[in-house]
Structure formats: C-alpha cells, structure tokens
Task: inverse folding
C-alpha cells in the first residue's frame, strides 16, 4: 500500500518520519526567549534608572549606542517572539484551516509592519538632529 | 495549569497591547513635543495607568513563567512539589515586582 491510502489517520502518517526541522525551530524559539529575558529586563531596568521619563531624557538615552543598540534588538526580538507565540496560540485554538491561515497571515503582516515602524521611529530618534 | 494558561494570556496581551504601546511610544518620541504630550497625557490618565500596570504585571508574569518553562524544558523541576511551588512563586513574584516597580515610579521618586 502506498502513502496516503490508509483508512486511518495514524496509518497515513506512519513511517513518513518527521520534517526534520522541528527541533531546530524549537531551539531557536528558546534561544530567542532567553535573549528577550535579558533585553526585557534591560528595558524595564533602564526606564526605572532614567532620572526622568520626559521626551528629552529618553531621546538622549536612545541617541547613545548603549541605549539604541539594545533597544533595536529588543524591538526585533519582541516582534519575532510575539509572532512565534501568536502562531502557537492560533494553531492550538483555531480549528478551521482557512481561519488559521487568515489569522497567521494577519499577525505576520502586523508583526512585520509594526516592527518596521518601531525600528524606523527608533532610527529617527537615534539619528535625529540634536534637540 | 493556571500558570500555563496565564503564560499564554499574558503572551497574547503583551504581543498585541504591549507592542502597540511600545510602537506608539517610539513613534511619539520620534515626533514633536505635542505628540509626546498626548502620549504622556493618556499614559498618566487613570485608565492609561491601569493598562500600563496591567502590561508590567503581564510582562513579569510571562517572564517568570517563561523562566520556569526554560527550566522544565531542560528536564528539571517536574516533581509534583517543586512544580507546584515554582508555579505559585511566579504569581507571587510577578505581583511583588509589579507593586515594587509602580510604588517606585509613582511614589514621588519620579
């Protein structure tokens, strides 16, 4: 009997093996979450340690590479991690295949668009003319 | 079980509300003083504060349960007692950290 002819669901997938990429993807997600552990803590700690949270003080902080570089990494890692996480939630709770595709596509566009907008704003702050 | 569900709920909240606020904050910072004043006005309004306090709690809860997940991923901490204690600790920790952060931010220090 060839592949896919079995009557049962398990019969269809038996002996087909894994896609062989799952483990790597899983590990990437874990490494990313560990990175966010550091970057997220850095973000909150930095806000707490700034003398004030007005526009001038924050801008000055984000103009320096010591603020701008981790902030860029924080933005990228956050949007990527959010996209990974939302996909897990969508895949687990949205049963209909069409809706699942629609949600995952919507979140993909939102994450890429939002991330690009946040990075553009950060670049404008970091490279803007001194106030 | 509760902590596992909280991890997902806080994750979704941070992904959508948290990243929207973060992006708006950066865009406002990059813009003129008027736009940033509008952000600050809403952020310091009681409703804005509720959202921000909620987001920081979600952040700490997700961070602590995330650490717990990384530990269990390594195959440790599955004993019933350890598992339950660590779950409860994430909730106590997130509430304490949120309270400490906002006590500091609103307690006249800034």
Result:
């Amino acid at each position: 009997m060839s592949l896919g002819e079995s009557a049962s669901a398990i019969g269809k997938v038996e002996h087909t093996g894994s896609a062989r990429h799952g483990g790597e993807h899983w590990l990437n997600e874990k490494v990313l979450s560990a990175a966010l552990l550091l970057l997220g803590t850095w973000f909150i700690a930095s806000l707490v340690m700034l003398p004030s949270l007005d526009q001038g003080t924050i801008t000055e902080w984000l103009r320096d590479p010591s603020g701008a570089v981790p902030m860029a990494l924080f933005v990228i890692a956050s949007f990527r991690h959010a996209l990974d996480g939302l996909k897990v939630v969508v895949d687990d709770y949205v049963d209909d295949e069409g809706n699942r595709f629609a949600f995952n596509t919507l979140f993909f566009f939102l994450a890429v668009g939002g991330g690009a907008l946040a990075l553009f704003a950060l670049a404008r702050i970091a490279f803007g003319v001194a106030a | 079980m509760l902590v596992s569900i909280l991890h997902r709920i806080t994750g979704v909240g941070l992904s959508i509300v948290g990243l929207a606020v973060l992006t708006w904050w950066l865009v406002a910072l990059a813009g003129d003083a008027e736009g940033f004043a509008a952000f600050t006005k809403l952020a310091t309004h009681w409703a804005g504060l509720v959202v921000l306090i909620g987001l920081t709690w979600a952040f700490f809860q997700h961070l602590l349960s995330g650490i717990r997940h990384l530990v269990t991923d390594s195959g440790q901490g599955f004993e019933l007692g350890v598992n339950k204690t660590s779950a409860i600790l994430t909730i106590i920790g997130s509430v304490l950290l949120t309270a400490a952060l906002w006590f500091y931010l609103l307690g006249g220090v800034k």
